[in-house]
Every structure is written in C-alpha cells, then in structure tokens.
Amino acid sequence: MKVKAIFLPLLALSLLLVGWHFAVVWTGVSKFVLPGPIAVLHALLSDWAGLMTAALATLKVTLMALFFAVLSGVLLALMFSLSRTFEMTVYPFAVVLQVTPIVSVAPLVLIWVGIDHVERALVIIAWLAAFFPILTNMSAGLRATDRNLHDLFRLYRATPWQRFWRLSWPTAMPYLLASLKVSGGLALIGAVVAEFVAGSGGATGLAWRILEAGNRLQVEKMFAGLVLLSLMGVMIFYGFALVEWLVLKRRMR
Amino acid sequence: MLSVSGLGFSYPGSGPVLNHIEFSLKAGEVVSLLGPSGCGKSTVLRLVAGLMTPSSGQIVREEGGDHIGFVFQEAALMPWATVADNVSLPLSLAHKKDAAAVASALEAVGLADFASRYPETLSGGQRMRVSLARALVAAPTLMLMDEPFAALDEILRFQMNQLLLDLTASKGWGCLFVTHSLFEAAYLSDRVLVMREGRIAGEVTPGLDRSLSPTAQRASVPFMKAVERIGTLLEGGA
After folding, report:
1. What is the pTM of this model?
2. What are the pLDDT digits (tens) for B23-62?
3. B186 torsion bin: left (phi>0), alpha (psi -120 to 50), beta (else)
4. Which CATH number fits domain B1-14+26-67+140-238: 3.40.390.10, 3.30.365.10, 3.40.50.2300, 3.40.50.300?
5. For residue B85, what is the nearest residue in chain A, using CA coordinates?
6. Looking at CA atoms only, how far is residue A147 from chain B in angstroms?
C-alpha cells in the first residue's frame, strides 16, 4: 500500500511530463506560450543559484509567518478557552481578518510597514493568511476535552495548571498538528501574494522572480519558479504530516 | 460510611430533578441505583462525588472517607498516556508516586502485562479494566460507578460483575452502582434502590447466597424474586 502511494503519483507525474513534452513537440506551440519540460529543466539548472536564493527568501518569510501564526493562534485560543466573554468580543475580528481577501489588504500593509522593512510586511501578510486555521483548530481542540476526564480531574482536585497541561493541551495537540498542515500551505500562498503585491519594492522571493521572468517573456523561467514553489508547498505539507505522525504514533503502540 | 438525607436537586428555572432522596451505604456493601433514563440516578452519583452541589439535603461521608473512586460508562482514558500513566493519574495529580500501587491495581484487574501499552491498542473490556484500576489505585473507601459495564457485551459484563464483587470483598469499599439493568442490579447488589421520576420508589434486598457459583446465583429463586420485585417497582407498583 505504501509503495503504491509513492509509486502511483510518480508514475502519473512521469506520464504527464512525457505527454507535455510530445504535445509541445507535435503541436509546435511557441515557447512564449508553453515551453516544454526540458526547457523548464534547463531554465531551472541554468539559474539554480539565483532561484535557490529566491526560494530560501520565500521559505524564510513562510516559516516566520507560520511561527507567528502558531504563537498568536495558540495564545489567542488559550485566552478564548479561559474567557467566553473575551472570545465573544474578539472572535468576530479574527473572522474579519480571515474573510477579507488578502490581496486587498496587502497594499495597505506594505504602505504601513513595508516602506522601510519590506520583509516585515511580507511576514505580516503571510501571517494573516495562516493564522485563522490555527486559532479555530486550537480553540476546538481545547474544548474537546473528555467530559468524564474533566470531572475526574475535578474529583482528584487537579490545579488549573494540571488541568491545562495534563488534559487540555494533549487533547488539543492533534488539532494543532492538523492545522499546521493547512496553515503551512496558506502561509506560503500568503508569502507569494505578498511578494506579487510588493513587486519590485525590495522583494527577493520566488514570486518576484516569476513576475520578473513574466515581464521578460521568459516563460520557462516562470515555470521553473512554479515548480520550486510547488515543491516547497509539498515539502511543507508532508513535513508537518511527518511531525504529526511522529508525535501521534506512540499513542497507537 | 455514606449517609444521604433529604437530598434534592433542581436546575435553575426548571422543576426538581431529585426529590427527598434518602439512603445509606456501609463499608463492603454494594448498593445499586436503578431506574429508567432521566430518573436522576447519575445526578445522585455526581452529587455524592461533589461534582455538583445539592439544592437541598445533606450528604455525609464518614471521617477518612475522603478517597473516592469514580468509574464512568466510558473508560475515559487519556489516549496520549500509557496504561500505567492512566492508572497513576489520581496519585500523580496529588504529586505522589507509587509504582507498587499502580502495579498492584493492574494486577487486581488482570492487566499486569499491559502497563506500557496505550489505550488505543486495548479492547473495550480491557479499557474498562484500566478505568477500574485507576479508580482503585488511590485505595478508595467509596466507589462510585455510573453504568460502567453498560457498553460491554454480556459475557464480558458477567466477568466484570464478578471482578467487582471480588474487589469489593477484598478492598472493603462501599460501592454505589448506577445501572439500568435489572439483572445486573439483582446480581451485584446487597440492596437495590429503584428510582422513578427523581424519587426512590422502593428498595429491594436480593439476599443471594454468595457461596453458590455465579450461574447458580443467577438461576436461584431469590435472584428471580428480586428481578420480579424490581420490575414491579419500575412499573409503578408498590
């Protein structure tokens, strides 16, 4: 089963690449519209150092945004679990942050923060994208404690700290880990959107490289950038899936 | 060791859930609270445990009767903790460590070899045994059980009934047992308190001969008579 799960997607990818290659060769489509996979690979290798520098810049923004999203999401969820009044007051604002299209907020953030510190603005925009799933999942996790266990902790006179650390936190952990898989991808999307909006204003990430290549009609370079972004997204997703598995697997022993 | 008098309970803005409940429980005795769903039997248990505050009446526990064991209908184990860590919960919350007590509690429920396992890997019956071990690790003088075997199949339920009787005899605790099974109540209990609509409708004393085998006890005349009497009380008879 595991072999199949790895083998089948790789087979599909290989078929796709071969099909793509022959479609480009047979139809004679212009390389300014659709370059073949070999041209994309060439673009990837010829500008490897530059693309990797850009990829690392985007990854840095993504991970920093994710770090702050976890920090703020978990802290806010904790405060929600302590005070229903606080939750009722603040939660609608969190929803507003979530439902407002990030592309429309990004220019404002860039004006407020990005003129002198463009990276800070990028992190804030990516954070906006990543924060909400962590908040909602963590809140749900903290509320999901077994009612009987909760009673048992009361019966044995557990302190509030013991209730949190030995009951609420471990209950919420699978919820937090699941949200990381979602928010990791969202942080990357946020970082890319932020770089697009920032344009040439000092952004050095992959999105900026794609934009720059587009302006020069280097479509194969655009594809090379896209490939790296997809790889990064996949790595982030499966990275957190691995963390989730490592943390939760011992419960199945 | 436990004396309940004039106990009443109602939720704010609604009618009474419990009305003038009175009973007592002695050490080494199993008393069952039996009744249809919603009659208030679990509420009595939660009030006795101190998880809820009565609206009226008194619950007096004997001096030194501070150690309470509580077993719920679900095993209510922590999936992130090993069997041993689950069992030691009452001790560790009190900042105590007693590996020998944990081992002996597991031994008592027949799970000595399962200490390092996680709950997900256990069967329903084994989980319930862990739950029972957790309740008895702190050497309770009062054992409260809220339909603990309701989710188990009949064969497992018979085994757990026997285990509970053996443990009650050896540990000497008083056990207040909530159930909606007439047969379980008749078999386990020294006394059965039949509840209807928040009141105790009557008391039945099965008086089984414990020297007989479990099957023989369940086929005996006193057992049948107890079941019949409980059934009559449940139907509204006197």
Report:
1. 0.84
2. 999 999 999 999 988 888 999 999 999 999 999 999 998 7
3. alpha
4. 3.40.50.300
5. A166
6. 8
